[in-house]
Amino acid sequence: MGDFFNTLLRPIELLVAWIMYGFHSLFTTIGLDPASGLAWGLSIIGLVIVMRAAMIPLFVKQINASRKMQLIQPELQKIQKKYKGKTDPESRQAMTQETMALYRKEGTNPFSSCLPILVQSPFFFGLFRVLNGLEKISTGQNEEIGPITREVAGQAEQATLFGAQLSDTFLSADNTATYVVTVILIILMSATTFTTQRQLMTKNMPASALDNPFAKQQKLIMYVMPIVFAVSGINFPIGVLLYWFTTNLWSMVQQFYVIRKMPAPGSAAERALHERLAKRGKPIPGGAERKAAEEAEAAEAAAKQGQRAQPKGKKRAKKKGTSGAVTEKAPQTDN
Predict the structure, then answer these.
(1) Which of 60, 103, 311, 331 has the greatest number of C-beta atoms within 10 Å?
(2) How much is the CA Rg of the chain, to the nearest whole Å?
(3) What is the rounded distance in angstroms from the CA atom of residue 8 to the CA atom of residue 189?
C-alpha cells in the first residue's frame, strides 16, 4: 500500500518541486539570497498562485453548484417529507431516485462543491512530502526530487523565516521562534477558513435557504473546520502552514469578489449589488423581468378580486329592494 501511495504521489512531488524551484530561481535572479527563508517562502506562495489560478474554472463550478444546492433545498425537503418514516427498501430506493432526478434536472450534486478541495489535496500532500523529506535528501538518505538535489535540499532545509526553519513543526520545535511562527500561522489559517465560510453563510444565501439541514450543516462546518485545522496544524511543517494560509487567503478574496459581482438570487449580497447599481444609475440585472412579473401578479390579483365582487343587475337589485322594504297601510277614515 505504501509503495502504491508513493508511486501515485511521485508525479505530484515532481511538479511541486519544479514549480517551487522555478520561482526560487526567479527570486534569486532578482537579488534575493538563495538560502533565505524569504526566497523559499515566496516560492511556496508562487506554488499556491499557479495552482489556484489553474483551478479558477473549478472554483466557478463549485460556486454555481453550491448556489444550486441552496436553491433546491425546499424541493429536497419535500422529497424527504414525502418518505419520512418509511424504512422499507422500495421507499428508500424511490426517495434516492427522486433525489438524483432533481440533481440531474438542476445540474448539481453535493460533491460538486468539493471539487477544488479534492483537486488541491494531492498538491498539499506533495508539498508536505517535499518539505518533510528535505533533511533526508540533503544527507543522501532519500533520493532527489527533480531539481531538488542534495545541495538545494540542504539550502532549503536551513532556510529560516523569522528565525524558524520552514521544515520545522510545532511538535519538533526546539526554539521560541518556531513556536511563535507556527501558532501565528495556525491562527491565521483558522481565521481565514472561518471568514470564508461565514461570508458565504451571511451574504450569499437566500433567506429561504437559511433554515434547512444543508444550511445547518454549513454552519456546523464553519465552526468545526477551524478547530480541525488548529489541532492538525501542529503536525505540519511551517512551509505547509504557509501554503495552507495562502490558499485560504486566496479562497477568501476570490469568494468575496464572486459574491460581490455574482451574488445568489434573493441573498443579502444581491440586495447590496442592486443598491450599488441604483445609486450609480445603472440598470439592475433582471429588473425589467421582475417588474413585469410583479405587474402581472398584481393584475391577476385584481382580476380575481373583481370576480369575487360581481356587480348586481338592475332587476335583481329592484327585486331585492322591493322584498326588503316595509310597506305601510293607508290610514282608514270613518264614514
Answers:
(1) 103
(2) 33
(3) 28
